[in-house]
Automatic annotation (TrEMBL):
GO molecular function: kinase activity
Domain of life: Bacteria
Protein name according to UniProt: Sugar kinase
UniProt source species: Caldicellulosiruptor morganii
InterPro entries: Carb_kinase_PfkB-like, PfkB_dom, Ribokinase-like
Classification via Pfam families: PfkB (PF00294)
Location of the Carbohydrate kinase PfkB domain: 2-206
Keywords: Kinase, Transferase
PANTHER family, per database record: 2-DEHYDRO-3-DEOXYGLUCONOKINASE_2-DEHYDRO-3-DEOXYGALACTONOKINASE, SUGAR KINASE
Family: Belongs to the carbohydrate kinase PfkB family.
Length: 342
C-alpha cells in the first residue's frame, strides 16, 4: 500500500522573522515540523507513496496540520484525532557565530495520550515496504514508546523493513536513558541511519583513540565501527552514517558513508552547505537514503542523492525539503552551482 509509513509527533513551529531573537520578536512565522513528518514530506516530493501516523487534537490546529501534510502528498488516513493540544516549538535561527536555538512547548501534547488500540497497526503496515521512526519519538513518553514497540514488533513479523534514526535530543533525555531504551528497539531495526557520535554515545559502541585523526575517524576506524555495530546488532541489514563539520552557523561541511556488499567503505562527496534554515537537514538526508533503498540505487548513488537532499534542504525555509526528484537530479548534474533554470 505504501512505500514508507512513519510514526512520530508533528508540531507547530513558530520562528521570529529572519534572524531575529525570540526576546526581540513581535511576530512569529508559522511552519509545521517533526523528524518523521519531514522525512515523508520529502519522500512524497520525490514520488514515493507515503503515510504518516500520529495523534492530533480535534480542533482547527489539528485540521491545519492535516492540511499541511496532505498538501505535500502524504496520506493522513491513519492519523487519530484525539487529545487536547498540538505540541509547539520555537526556533531562533542562528547566523554566523550565533547557533540556532530551540524552545519546546510540547508537554501534554496529543500524541502522549495514545493508548493501545488507538492505532490499527496491522491495517496500516499491510503492504508497506518500510516503517520509519526515530529516537525522538521513543523519548516522548511511556505511552508513545509502548506504541512504537508494538509497531516495530509487528513490522518485523509482517516482513516490513524497519528504518530508524537515533536522532538524540538532549532536551528530551540523557544519553544513559537513550541507551537503555534504544538498545531494546535495535533488535527490530533493519536500516540504521545515524551519525558517529550517536553510535558512540547512545549505543555505547566505542572506537579507540588510535583510530582517530583529530575528531575524524580514519578509514580503519570506520570499518571497525561498522563491525562492532554488526556484532552488537546482527539483524542490521544496512547502516548509513552521516558526518557534519560546522564552520559556522551559516556554513557546514556534510558527507556520509556506508558499506557495500564486499565490505568496502563507500563515501559521498563532501558538500559545503550554505545555511538558510538548519532544521530538517538530517531528515532530508534520511529521505534520500530511504528513496535510494526503495529504488535499488548503488551505495554511491544513494549517498550522493541523500547528501544533496540535505544540502538543498538547508536553502529552504521550514522543516522539510520541498523538492522534486527532477530538481535533485538537475542539481546533481549542475554540481550545485545554482545556475538559473530558463
Amino acid at each position: 500500500m505504501f512505500d514508507v509509513v512513519a510514526f512520530g509527533e508533528i508540531m507547530l513551529r513558530l520562528s521570529p522573522p529572519g534572524y531575529q531573537r525570540i526576546v526581540q520578536a513581535s511576530s512569529f512565522d508559522i511552519n509545521f515540523g517533526g523528524a518523521e513528518a519531514n522525512v515523508v514530506v520529502a519522500l512524497s516530493g520525490l514520488g514515493a507513496k507515503t503515510a504518516y501516523v500520529t495523534l492530533l487534537p480535534p480542533n482547527s490546529l489539528g485540521d491545519a496540520t492535516v492540511n499541511y501534510l496532505r498538501k505535500f502528498g502524504v496520506d493522513t488516513g491513519a492519523i487519530v484525532r484525539k487529545g487536547k493540544r498540538l505540541g509547539i516549538y520555537f526556533l531562533e535561527k542562528g547566523v554566523g557565530q550565533r547557533p540556532s536555538s530551540v524552545v519546546y512547548d510540547r508537554a501534554g501534547s496529543a500524541i502522549n495520550e495514545v493508548q493501545t488500540g488507538d492505532i490499527d497497526w496491522e491495517r496500516i503496515l499491510s503492504g508497506t515496504r518500510i516503517f520509519f521512526s526515530t529516537g525522538i519519538t521513543a523519548a516522548l513518553s511511556g505511552n508513545v514508546l509502548n506504541e512504537l514497540k508494538i509497531a516495530f514488533k509487528l513490522a518485523k513479523q509482517m516482513g516490513v523493513k524497519v528504518a530508524f534514526d537515533i536522532n538524540f535530543r538532549s532536551k528530551l533525555w540523557s544519553y544513559d536513558k537513550a541507551h537503555e531504551v534504544i538498545s531494546q528497539l535495535m533488535p527490530y531495526v533493519d536500516i540504521l541511519i545515524t551519525n558517529e557520535e550517536h553510535v558512540r554515545r547512545v549505543l555505547k559502541i566505542e572506537v579507540e583513540q588510535e583510530y582517530f585523526e583529530g575528531i575524524d575517524l580514519k578509514e580503519e576506524g570506520q570499518k571497525l565501527l561498522f563491525k562492532r555495530l554488526e556484532d552488537a546488532f546482527p539483524d542490521l541489514k544496512r547502516i548509513v552514517l552521516a558526518a557534519r563539520r560546522s564552520i559556522s552557523s551559516s556554513k557546514n561541511i556534510f558527507f556520509a558513508y556506508t558499506k557495500d556488499t564486499g565490505g568496502n567503505i563507500v563515501f559521498s562527496s563532501k558538500r559545503e552547505i550554505e545555511i538558510i534554515d538548519r532544521v530538517g537537514g538530517g531528515d532530508a538526508f534520511t529521505a534520500g537514503v530511504l528513496y535510494g533503498i526503495l529504488n535499488d540505487f548503488s551505495e554511491k548513488e544513494m549517498l550522493e542523492l541523500s547528501t544533496y537532499m540535505c544540502a538543498l534542504k538547508h536553502t529552504i525555509e521550514g522543516d522539510a525539503a520541498f523538492v522534486t526528484l527532477e530538481e535533485v537530479k538537475q542539481a546533481l548534474l549542475q554540481d550545485g552551482h545554482g545556475l538559473m533554470k530558463r
